[in-house]
Amino acid sequence: MYGYIVRRLAFGALAVIGVSVVVFVVLRVLPGDPLVAIFGSEGFTKLSEAERARYMADLGLSDPLPVQYVHWVYDITRGNLGHSFFRAESVAEMIARRGPLTAEIALISVVLSWIVGIPVAVISALRPNSWADNISRFLSILFLAVPGFWLGMLIVLGLLFVFGYRAPLAGVSLFVDPWANLQIVIGPAIVLGLGQGAYIARMARSSLLEVIREDYIRTARAKGLNRRLVVALHALPNALLPVVTLSGILLGFVLAGSIPVERAFGTPGLGYAMAIAVSERDVFVMQNLVFLYAIVFVVLNILVDLISAWLDPRIRYG
Amino acid sequence: MSTATRDTAFAQPQDIPDAAPSLLRRTARGLRRFARRSPMSAFWACIAAAIIGMAVAAPVVAPYDPLKSDFRAMTKPPSERHYFGSDQIGRDTLSRVIHASRASLTVAIGAVVLGTTLGALWGLACGYFGGRFDIISQRIIEFLQSFPDLILAMAIAMALGAGMGTVIVAIAITRIPFGGRVIRAVVLSVKEMAYVEAARGLGASHLRIMAQHILPQCLAPYLILATTHLGVAIIIEASLGFLGVGIPPPTPTWGNMLADSLNAGLVPPWWLVLFPGAAITVTVLAFNLLGDGIRDILDPRLRGAV
C-alpha cells in the first residue's frame, strides 16, 4: 500500500508541474500579446506606444517567457497570488473570502447526489424494466441533458414569481449566520447535486445489476435472509465501489460546473469570481484561479485513487 | 496489384456478401433494423435529424430576421405575433432560438469531429509505435485531463479571443484526451492480431498497416465516441456563451441568449430564459440518446464504458 501511495503522489506532483506549464502556455503564450487579452483588440489599438511599454514593464511582461514562468511559480510558492487588474482585492483574499462558499456548495451537492441517486438506483435495479425503472432511467438521462445554469435561472425565477423570494446576495460565513449562509448555498447545491445524482444513479444501477447476479448474493438469499437485508448489507457495499470513484471525479467537475451555476444564482462564491474574471479578461486572476482549480482536481483524483485502493485490495495488488 | 486486393479482402471479409444490394437499400435496411432494435433511440434520432434540419433551413423556418429589432414589441411576452415573445430590443425569440441552433450545432459538431479525430490519430500513433513517444504522449494527455473540461475550454477561449473558430478549437482540445485514450487501447489490442502480423510479413509499410488494417477497426469506437460527446460539447458551448467567452453577440447562440436575458433588467423575463434553455435540453437529450443507441448497436460491450 505504501508503495502505491508514494507512486501515486509522485505522479500527482508531476501532474501539478505539467498543469502549471499548460496554464502558462494557454494564458500567457497563446494570446500573443497579453495586453490584447486584457484590453481587447479595440482597447489595445487606443493605447499609445509609450503606454503599452509602461504596462508591459509594470506587469513584468517584457521579460522572456521562461523568466516570466519562473517568476510566476516563485510568486505562488511564496503565497503571492497577485492582484486583479481591475480591483483592489488580492487574489489570495478573494480565495479566502469566496472559496469556502464554493467548497460548501460542492460538498453539499455531493451529499445530495448520493441521497437522490442511490435510492433511485436501488429501486431501478431491483425491478429492471419495470415502470419505476423506466421512469427513473428517463429522469437520469434528462438531468444529464439539462444545463445546470439554466435550471438555476429557472429556480431563481420560479421562487421570485411564486413566493417573491430572493436569496440574500451578500456572502455570509457559515459560522456567523448559518441560516443566511444556507439560503445562499442551497440553490446551487441542489442544481449541481441533481446533475451528479443522474450520473450516480446510472452508475449505481448498472453496478448493482452486476453484483446482484453474483453467487454470494444467491447464497445469502438461499439461506433465508430477507431480501432488503441482502441488498443493503451484501450487495450495496460492493456495488458502491465504482460509485465512490465516480463521485470523487464528479466532485472535480462540480467545481467547474459551479462557475456558470453561481453566475446564474448570483452566489458570491469563487465560481462567480471566475465568471467575472473571464468576462473581464482578467488574465492574471484567471491564471491563478485556473491553476488552483486544476490543483484541486489533481488532488481529488489522487484521493479517489487512494480511497478506492483502500476499499478494494484488487487495485492495490493488481 | 494482386497482393493489394488480396490483403484488403483479408482484412475485411465481411464486405463481400454485402456488395450485392445497392447502397440505398442497404442503408434503408440498416435504418429499419436500427428502428426495430431500439425504437426509443430511433425516435430521438428523428428529433436530432429535425433539429439539424431546422438549423440548416433556419432562414426559411424562422418567422423573422433574428437580428432585426422591432421597437413596437420590446420585451413582450409570448403572443400570436411572437410565439416565444421578444427580447429587450424587440427581436423575435423564436427566430433567435432557431438561428442559434446553427451556431451551437456547428460548434459542437466541428469541435467533436476535430478533437476526436486529432485524438484518434494521436492515439493510433501512440498505440502503434509505443516506446518513448507513447510514454511522453500519455503524460501530455494526462496533463490535459487534469483540468475539468469547462475550465480548460474557458481559459483557451479567453486566451484566443471571441469567435466561432476559437470556441471550436477550445472545445476540441478538451476532447483530444478521450479520442487518444480509447483509440490507443483499441490499437494496442488490434496490432497483436494475426492478420496484422501477416500484412507485416508481406512487407507492408507502417503507414499502410495503420491505414489499411488498423484504422478500419477503430471506426466503430470513433463513431461511438463522437456521438456520445456531441451532447457534452453542446453544453460546454452553451456555458461558454453564458459566461461571455463564446461566440459574441449579435450572432445568437443559446448560451449568449441566456446571458443576454440576465441583462434585461433586475428580473429576467421568463420567456427569454425558458426557451433557449429548453432548446439546449432537447438537443442534448436527443444527441445523448442517439449516441446511446449507436453505441448499443455498434458495440454492446462498450455499454457504460465510454
Description:
The radius of gyration of chain A is 24 Å and the shape is globular. Chain A contains 14 helices and no strands. In chain A, 36% of the residues are buried. In chain A, α7 crosses α8 and α11 crosses α12. Chain A has 318 residues and is mainly α. In chain B, α6 runs antiparallel to α7 and α10 crosses α11. Chain B contains 13 helices and no strands. Chain B has 306 residues and is mainly α. Classes of the chains: A mainly alpha (318), B mainly alpha (306). Chains A and B meet through α1, α2, α6, α7 and α8 of A and α7, α8, α11, α12 and α13 of B.
Write a short abstract of this structure.
The complex is a heterodimer of chains A (318) and B (306). Chain A has 318 residues and is mostly helical.
Question: What layout of secondary structure does this protein have?
Answer:
The complex is a heterodimer of chains A (318) and B (306).
Chain A: H1 2-29, H2 34-46, H3 49-58, H4 65-77, H5 91-126, H6 131-145, H7 148-163, H8 178-212, H9 215-222, H10 227-239, H11 241-265, H12 270-279, H13 283-311, H14 313-317
Helix pairs in contact in A: 1-13, 5-6, 5-8, 5-11, 6-8, 7-8, 7-11, 8-10, 8-11, 9-10, 11-12, 11-13
Chain B: H1 2-11, H2 15-18, H3 23-37, H4 39-56, H5 58-61, H6 93-129, H7 131-144, H8 149-160, H9 164-190, H10 194-201, H11 206-243, H12 254-262, H13 270-298
